[in-house]
Amino acid sequence: MEVNRVKQILSSSADIDVTYHDVSVWIDQLNEDGKTVMVHMRGPSEERSVVKISELEEEKLKH
Questions:
Q1: Where, subcellularly, is it found (predicted)?
Q2: Average per-residue pLDDT in the chain?
Q3: In total, how many domains does the chain have?
Q4: Which of the four, 7, 17, 61, 63, has the lowest number of CB atoms within 10 Å?
């Protein structure tokens, strides 16, 4: 994923499915370095992690 797409996702009200190593995550914030983001897993876990933007993938809609 690219930093511009992260910014679009963060400013969108849509529920955009993003994965980190095949695990569905929410993007919480773009970090100041512009290369990492704070994410947390979807579901009851509130555990947060800092991950590289390049390791995120946007799930494409399946028709």
A1: Spore core
A2: 92
A3: 1
A4: 63
